[in-house]
């Protein structure tokens, strides 16, 4: 499976600020996904990031709040904008490294907003 | 909308017993059903998956069954060990999207 890294691994931020999370993969992948996992909860898909096109957002998530970049086939960023304490969560990227449906997760970014 | 229900939410077994976790899904177009194990503070790890053209798949102590007619799939862990203690998530979907169940917290007691 692909080796996936995320930066930062954790951060504590003040409300009203923004944080950009990076996801790096050691091989070219077609599909990259961003998830949110609130404490003790399941994984909720925020958006799908495809290289060369706009990200596709799920219901309840908007581009102004969670802008995403996908400049190439090994890298993506997710920005959490104008943060509030409700944004405190773990943010995970996942990749689909081949033509199958399998997804592999990055280590996650643990975000606390004060 | 698309939904995956997972039961039970918690499961406690004695070491050596079997554990079964069940999921149902709503989207009949789903054709891929993975299971992930998440230990505390770690990322979800894929442990087994099954596709819609297969009814059952086994990997050592872990097996998954799929009933497409009933939109139901299950994870079976035999001879449980303390290191099997974790949260398990089922998911259903396909190439572009996975919908996850709420998770099952499994505790295996020595």
Give me the Rg of chain A, rounded. 13 Å
Q: Decide which structural class fits the backbone of chain B.
A: mainly beta
* Low-confidence runs of chain A: none
Average of pLDDT of chain B: 95
Greatest interface by residues involved? A-B, 20 and 24 residues
Portion in helices of chain A: under 10%
DSSP summary, beta strand count of chain B: 11
Mean pLDDT across all amino acids of chain A: 93
Specify the overall morphology of chain A.
Answer: globular
The succession of helices and strands of chain A, N to C, reads EEEEEEEEEEE
For the termini of chain A, the CA-CA separation is 36 Å
Structural class of chain A comes to mainly beta
Annotation field: number of helices of chain A: 0
The biggest beta sheet of chain A is recorded as: 7 strands, mixed
Q: How do the helices and strands follow one another from N- to C-terminus of chain B? A: EEEEEEEEEEE
Distance between the termini of chain B: 41 Å
Kindly estimate the percentage of residues of chain A that lie in beta strands according to DSSP: over 45%
Helix content bin of chain B: under 10%
Largest sheet of chain B: 6 strands, mixed
Give the overall shape of chain B, derived from the CA principal axes: globular
Number of strands of chain A: 11
Your description of this structure?
The complex is a heterodimer of chains A (114) and B (110). Chain A has 114 residues and is mainly beta. Helix content of chain A is 0%, strand content 50%. In chain A, the strands form 2 sheets. In chain A, strands 2, 4, 5, 6, 9, 10 and 11 form a 7-stranded mixed beta sheet that branches. Chain A is globular and about 40 Å long. The model of chain A has no long low-confidence stretch (mean pLDDT 93). With 110 residues, chain B is an all-beta fold. In chain B, the strands form 2 sheets. In chain B, strands 2, 4, 5, 9, 10 and 11 form a 6-stranded mixed beta sheet that branches. The model of chain B has no long low-confidence stretch (mean pLDDT 95). Helices cover 0% and strands 57% of the residues of chain B. Chain B is globular and about 40 Å long. The chains are: A mainly beta (114), B mainly beta (110). Chains A and B meet through strand 5 and strand 10 of A and strand 4, strand 5 and strand 10 of B.
């Amino acid at each position: 499976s692909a080796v996936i890294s995320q930066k930062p691994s954790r951060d504590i931020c003040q409300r009203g600020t923004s944080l950009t999370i990076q996801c790096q993969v050691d091989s070219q992948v077609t599909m990259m996904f961003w998830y949110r996992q609130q404490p003790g909860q399941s994984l909720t898909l925020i958006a799908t990031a495809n290289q060369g096109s706009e990200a596709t957002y799920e219901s309840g998530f908007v581009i102004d709040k969670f802008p995403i970049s996908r400049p190439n086939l090994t890298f993506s960023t997710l920005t959490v904008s104008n943060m509030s304490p409700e944004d405190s969560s773990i943010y995970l990227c996942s990749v689909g490294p081949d033509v199958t449906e399998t997804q592999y997760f990055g280590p996650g970014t643990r975000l606390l907003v004060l | 909308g698309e939904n995956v229900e997972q039961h039970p939410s918690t499961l406690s077994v004695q070491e050596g017993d079997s554990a079964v976790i069940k999921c149902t899904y709503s989207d009949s177009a789903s054709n891929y059903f993975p299971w992930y194990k998440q230990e505390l503070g770690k990322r979800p790890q894929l442990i087994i998956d099954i596709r819609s053209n297969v009814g059952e798949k086994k990997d050592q102590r872990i097996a998954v069954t799929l009933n497409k007619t009933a939109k139901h799939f299950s994870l079976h862990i035999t001879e449980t060990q303390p290191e099997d203690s974790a949260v398990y998530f089922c998911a259903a979907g396909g190439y572009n999207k996975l919908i996850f169940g709420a998770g099952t917290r499994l505790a295996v007691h020595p």
